[in-house]
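Hi! If you just cloned this repository, the fastest way to understand the data is to look at a raw example. We've pasted two of them here, unedited. The first protein comes first, obviously.
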Amino acid sequence: MGRPTTRTDSNESAGEPSGDILVRIRSALPALAPAEQRVAEAIIEDPAQASRWSIGVLADRARTSVTTVMRFCRTNGLRSYPELRLALAGAVALENAQSQPRTHSHTDISETDTLDEIADKIVFHEARGLEETRAQLDIDVLKRVVEAVGGARRIDIFGVGASGFVAADLHQKLHRIGLMAFVWTDAHAALTATALLRPGDVALGISHSGTTADTLDPLQAAAERGATTVALTNFPRSPLAESADLVLTTSVREMPLRSGATVSRTAQLAVVDCLFVGVAQRCYDHSATALNDTFKAIHRRSVPYTAARRSTPDAPSVPAQDASPRGGSDQGGVPD
């Protein structure tokens, strides 16, 4: 299936670069030709040095030609190589400023790091991932997804692995405000569910890489049934994104020791929260009542802050803030 006309690629127009160039390069890397991938990898390995290299030096480092480097610039929305160097210098300066006073928190985790350094690095990368995700989040597309989900007869959500936990979180949130939502983390069950979809329904696939077959296959099957398809991925040129009507993207970088999976899940959850609150806001009074009722249903399961468990025949009244779409306790968002 070709790229849907509903996609918007505002960051890819040549001569109109926007946002962090390193974010765009990392997002585009899997879809680049092999020679351009080597250019991207040389830049990502040491962006500070790359910002000072001549075009010939970068071509040599990437084992390719000057022509390929120029093609790489145009692929990433830049008109010239000097423009790339300026963009890299700005991105490096921003990262250095944001990593102060913890001067090494922007680097990868190493085998010699202390737990204090590991904590600094993980928190830095999670915070940076959230900031970069918000900076490139297409609000117009988000609005269209909110309208599609809010008006759907049913919503089927697909995801496996770490993305499966995010899919389950979104399912629970939507279910708590009375929407007919389902979550599928098994490929066979997901494909079976798509047989019941029809126009007006929504199918949403979540995959950091955008290449997971267990998520891609049911999303494509849902499209064949006429459902509106939505992808949540880190790579806007991935197969999952290309198969979807509407694409929401995160923006996180990979790190060793699976911390990349942690950061990607945090960013995905942030986008899911934006989507959920937008949907709940469409029918605010109904959503607030539903959240309040579901809060009361599980409030009895809370253990009091005493050594002995007390009997609570009547659930206490719920504070006003608990009736908001965000909730006001551990059970306000998603029950344990």
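Ok, and the second one:
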Amino acid sequence: MLDIHITEFYNDVARILLLLYRAFPRQISVYVEDISGLDTADEYGLHSERHLACFHTLNWLQAEQLIRFDDVERQTAFNQCVLTLSGFRWLAGFDAQDGGAKFVDELEYGIKDGNSIVVEQLIKSLLNAQANSQVK
């Protein structure tokens, strides 16, 4: 069984981190629709599953200490959002195995090419590095 929601999660993480890296060190507002695509609310005005998954990805990134933000606007935007030091270090780091390419460059290429496998591998390495740094 394909886990499409996990693939979308990795792609959302990559897009969020790239957006914040490009703005670093400025604090910016991150709009969920800019990451997940146009939201189509249901007849009750509730957000789509896709929108909510992206919204919760942003919350999760903060809980894992990769980003910070001051407040949330009605499940549509995260205000004063910025990478944490650990998030910035990982993205700005170099990969010795790839001849010194920055992780952020590899992530950018993966997103532009639509290569979910590369994006997934890079995000997994981020999450592993983050987990290892919290254990120490």
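That's it. A detail worth noticing about the second one: The beta strands are 28-31, 67-68, 71-73, 77-83, 94-95, 101-102.
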